Amino acid sequence: MPRRIIVIFLSILFLTGCMPNGQRPYVNLRDLEAPPPETLKRTGEAPLRIVVSPSLSNRDTAGYYRQLADHVAVQTGHPTELIYRRSNSEAQALLASSGADIGFFSTGTYLSYTGSVDLEILVVPERAQGPVYQALVIVPSDSPAEEIADLAGKSFAFNDSLSFSGAIFPRYLLKQLNKTPENFFRQTIFTQSHSKSMQAVAMHMLDGASIDSIAFDHARKNSPEIANAIRIIHLSPSAGTGPIVIRQDIDAAKKDLLRTVFLNMHHNQDMRKVLRELMFERFTTPQSHLYDYPRHIFTEVKTSP
């Protein structure tokens, strides 16, 4: 194995954190976060199962999603179970197999869903700029690159193959150059995390990456040394934020209750703090036109030879 590949591989493991006993670098809270047995006995019902798309969460934000799930349990009277998966396709599969009821999906995870179980958008996160975000292509702050064409023959990080900002958008940019990642970059890796991609670029482990503006804003707030060590060379038009989706076969009254809980969450002082840590202001009703641009990009990339 080439020395550079080994170095990058070990570096990504370091960024992931020390994993004892060969444990895979992802968090699955299905067993750790199951509702107390007395709750199930008292309510006589199975928990509301919530899966979180891995591109949205990392060690810094996992606890906040737990607090969101706990708040939903308190407000609805239904126990909740929070589930993490290591890829967006696994999160999709869980809902498609009725192994989960609700999903915190990234935009790409939602747009690429083709499961036999129909989904609908329950609510969407709204930021200070509205229910939108952007895809960013980044390089180290001292890199001479000014556009993605300058990264030919370089190393590049994607997030997840289904991520709009972390994979589909840079593929679209390369298609405009009649290139693919395979014949353009010297090396590519999938980090499964916007924050890991940023760290790798900031530390000059990789020459470039594609992330979303929510993760970048989170870094500017909480890790300015990382944000200051990278530079944006491409910025996509605005796209709708990753929605909270729900299976269509869920009882209509339960869906209405859940929608009400999410739409009013920002009125709770504690939950308002949680939302802001996730770089959101509130949840709001979906606006379908906000997904027109990323849907168009998905179609363009899918038709690539």
Structure overview:
This protein has 305 residues and is an alpha/beta fold. The protein folds into 2 domains: 33-131 and 241-294, Periplasmic binding protein-like II (D-Maltodextrin-Binding Protein, domain 2), CATH 3.40.190; 135-236, D-Maltodextrin-Binding Protein, domain 2 (3-Layer(aba) Sandwich), CATH 3.40.190. Helices cover 40% and strands 19% of the residues. It has 13 helices and 13 strands. It has helices at 3-16, 37-43, 62-76, 88-96, 107-111, 164-176, 181-184, 194-202, 213-222, 224-227, 252-263, 269-277, 292-302; strands at 48-52, 80-84, 102-104, 119-126, 132-133, 135-140, 155-158, 187-190, 208-212, 230-235, 239-240, 244-247, 282-284. The strands form 3 sheets. A 6-stranded mixed β-sheet has the order 2-1-3-12-4-13, sandwiched between helices. Helix 3 (62-76) links the parallel strand 1 (48-52) and strand 2. Helix 3 (62-76) packs antiparallel against helix 12 (269-277) and helix 6 crosses helix 13 (292-302). The protein is globular and about 60 Å long. The relative contact order is 0.17. The model is unreliable at 5-10 and 12-42 (pLDDT under 50).
Concise description?
Helices cover 40% and strands 19% of the residues. It is of the alpha/beta class and 305 residues long. The protein folds into 2 domains: 33-131 and 241-294, 3-Layer(aba) Sandwich (D-Maltodextrin-Binding Protein, domain 2); 135-236, D-Maltodextrin-Binding Protein, domain 2, CATH 3.40.190.
